[in-house]
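Tokens in:
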């Protein structure tokens, strides 16, 4: 089920504004003494565990582009994944696409639809390297931190747009039972149950599970059935052991499963969802991460070891039409191992962090495209047969499989360091990362079929010759990349609540291979056999280069009017080389290609404000503007210089008003009423900027009743029934969009039986 839209003001705890790491307004616990190992690892209390982010120096006086949400606010906002955060963080956008496989995120005008992610994602410090595993539902999130801007020094590859750090509740800090039940429009259900306890004073265990389901909102006219049905479940275990004040071990493991019924893609020409073939997406994911931490007097050492496995299966009516063109099936298995060693220390006003990181990832994928009768006729035969020619061809069979198998081993190592020094009101930080990566692909694409050559004799076609068609493309390719990534920060603090800072950093996103183009390559090879034009060269189109950027930020933060008004602002400019762009090849093609744009610029602003006029009211607003344009890019048809980068929204907006009060009765202890609005757009869908989604806004209302037994929340999303699109897709020259969810209502019950 899709994450419920924002219901209650994110700033009930002032958590959605830009905060200063180490002085987070979202964390109520007192700070440990500076220079201690506890401070260096953000541990709250000697006998409690609440480590959210290991990979950071204190950055105590740096105003930063960070959105931090604590546990109380997570529950009030009904956030159970990355999409929920995207509704409140400025210039951070994760749209609702056709499937959870396409977990695309756009930050400050940067992003991509397929392959490499734009931001890093860590859950309990475990890095998830595959973007296809980003869109999930999770339970008992303790803290979420979204850092915008390149984070390549600490997190390396694919953190060019930032990093998302999620931390779950520790069984050493909380003991009890938590439960949730929800029902909403579209016959949507959600349930979760978890239990936390101590097996001994130093050993804690947490087990939990969740399930959600929806019958969907969009109907396929061809079948008469809903196409956006979904079923998800997740089970997780967390073990925390602290045998002494100097040693902490945590193991977080979870298994999740997703089953989606289809893709609600609406034709722009007809305004209908109307396709004949079955569509579905299945994913099973297994993640296990072990974190070991040692706390010395002035140093801490951490080791993070993780294993990840993804098994997904997708079948797609890729033409999305009622005719029998073609279908795509994609089955993939992927294993990933990661290891990270981190050392942090302090000496007076000097703090440092250093580390070594390595990973190995291997994927096996089978991705056949099955051409059917109508597709063979219109896409191959009609293009090969010249009207009036005495010679004609026909395929012997009315079904043809263009098969492709891939093996993609990938590994990399990196060393990184960051130093920070404070003198008076000034704080400076420098960082450097050296990263090496080797990626490979073994591909095998083939087709075994045949055709018959005919001679036109009056109204009759006379068979002349049968011609076998056997194409076999196979090769092994590899690429290497060596990246040197620097970072510089400088800030000045006027007082404890007011500071300004500048950040200059380099980011990079790994290159890759265009596996989704092999069906087109085979199709064009068939056309070449019949005398047609061969449009693609395998060696040229199969790979794309890493994306590199230089980012420049000016940050400021302050509190006014006796700390009742918090203001944070960021100005940024990003110069990107070889930005990775997902493109739809021109004409009657079936694939998608990742290409490198020559150069792009993105500039913009981010503003967040929180106003608490009294103890009952709180007002929150955040706004992000990103003007991302091509400086040098030709897509093969037109010069796109000056055009907007597609899929990345220019504006994001969030505004909320909440009233809360306590009520002293036996059955009702408090009430919260919230009205909110979220805006996005415009979003350009193509490089030529001919198709776009204009700016739109979604309104939400909620009433939360607190009782001694449970919290009861009545909510409504998109109450004004705004119509908008979240995705654009092209296939064989036809254009499709996915519409956003309609108006929805529901009720949510939350139970917390703390011991």
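Residues out:
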């Amino acid at each position: 089920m899709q994450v419920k839209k924002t219901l209650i003001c994110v700033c009930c705890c002032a958590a959605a504004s830009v905060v200063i790491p180490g002085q987070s307004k979202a964390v109520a616990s007192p700070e440990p003494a500076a220079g201690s190992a506890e401070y260096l690892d953000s541990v709250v209390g000697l006998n409690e565990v609440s480590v959210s982010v290991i990979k950071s120096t204190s950055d105590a006086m740096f105003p930063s582009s960070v959105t931090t949400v604590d546990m109380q606010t997570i529950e009030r906002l009904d956030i159970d994944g990355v999409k929920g955060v995207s509704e409140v963080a400025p210039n951070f956008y994760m749209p609702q696409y056709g499937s959870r496989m396409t977990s695309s995120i756009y930050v400050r005008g940067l992003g991509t639809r397929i392959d490499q992610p734009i931001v890093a994602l860590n859950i309990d410090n475990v890095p998830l390297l595959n973007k296809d595993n980003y869109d999930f539902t999770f339970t008992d999130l303790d803290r979420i931190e979204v850092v915008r801007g390149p984070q390549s020094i600490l997190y390396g590859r694919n953190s060019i747009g930032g990093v998302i750090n999620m931390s779950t509740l520790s069984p050493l800090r909380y003991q009890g039972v938590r439960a949730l039940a929800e029902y909403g429009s579209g016959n949507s259900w959600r349930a979760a149950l978890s239990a936390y306890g101590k097996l001994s004073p130093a050993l804690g265990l947490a087990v939990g599970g969740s399930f959600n389901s929806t019958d969907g909102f969009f109907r396929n006219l061809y079948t008469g059935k809903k196409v956006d049905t979904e079923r998800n479940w997740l089970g997780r275990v967390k073990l925390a052991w602290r045998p002494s004040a100097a040693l902490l071990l945590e193991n977080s493991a979870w298994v999740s499963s997703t089953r989606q019924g289809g893709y609600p893609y609406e034709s722009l020409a007809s305004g209908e969802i109307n396709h004949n073939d079955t569509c579905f997406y299945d994913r099973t994911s297994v993640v296990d991460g072990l974190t070991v931490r040692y706390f010395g007097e002035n140093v801490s050492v951490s080791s993070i070891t993780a294993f990840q496995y993804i098994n997904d299966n997708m079948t797609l009516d890729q033409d999305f039409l009622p005719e029998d063109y073609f279908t795509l099936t994609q089955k993939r298995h992927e294993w990933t191992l990661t290891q990270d060693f981190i050392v942090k220390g302090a000496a007076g006003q000097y703090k440092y962090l250093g580390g070594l990181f390595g990973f190995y990832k291997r994927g096996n994928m089978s991705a056949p495209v099955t051409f059917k009768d109508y597709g063979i006729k219109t896409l191959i035969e009609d293009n090969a047969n010249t009207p009036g020619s005495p010679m004609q061809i026909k395929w012997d069979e009315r079904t043809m499989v263009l098969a492709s198998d891939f093996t993609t081993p990938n590994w990399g190592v990196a060393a990184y360091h960051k130093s920070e020094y404070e003198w008076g009101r000034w704080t400076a930080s420098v960082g450097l990362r050296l990263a090496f990566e080797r990626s490979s692909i073994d591909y095998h694409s083939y087709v075994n079929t045949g055709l018959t050559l005919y001679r036109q004799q009056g109204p009759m076609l006379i068979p002349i010759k049968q011609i076998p068609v056997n194409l076999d493309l196979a090769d092994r390719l590899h690429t290497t990349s060596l990246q040197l990534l620097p970072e510089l920060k400088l800030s000045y603090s006027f007082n404890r609540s007011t500071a300004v800072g500048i950040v200059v950093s380099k980011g990079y996103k790994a290159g890759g291979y265009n596996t989704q183009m092999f069906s087109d390559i085979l199709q064009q090879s068939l056309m070449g056999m019949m005398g047609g034009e061969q449009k693609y060269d395998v060696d040229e189109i199969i790979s794309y280069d890493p994306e590199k950027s230089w980012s420049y930020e000016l940050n400021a933060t302050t509190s006014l009017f006796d700390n009742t008004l918090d203001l944070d602002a960021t100005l940024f400019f990003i110069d990107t080389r070889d930005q990775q762009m997902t493109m739809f090849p021109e004409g009657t093609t079936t694939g998608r290609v990742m290409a490198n744009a020559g150069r792009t610029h993105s500039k913009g602003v981010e503003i967040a404000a929180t106003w608490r006029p009294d103890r009952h009211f709180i007002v929150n607003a955040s706004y992000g503007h990103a003007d991302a344009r091509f400086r040098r890019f030709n897509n093969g048809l037109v010069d796109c210089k000056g055009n907007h980068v597609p899929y990345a929204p220019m504006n994001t907006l969030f505004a909320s008003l909440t009233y809360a009060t306590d009520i002293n009765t036996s059955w009702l202890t408090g009430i919260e009423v919230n009205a909110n609005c979220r805006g996005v757009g415009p979003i350009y869908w193509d490089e030529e900027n001919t198709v776009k989604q204009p700016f739109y806004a979604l309104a939400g209302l909620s009433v939360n009743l607190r009782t001694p037994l449970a919290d009861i929340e009545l909510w409504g999303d998109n109450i004004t029934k705004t119509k908008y699109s979240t995705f654009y897709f092209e296939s064989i020259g036809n254009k499709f969009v996915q519409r956003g969810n309609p108006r929805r209502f529901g009720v949510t019950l939350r139970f917390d039986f703390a011991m």
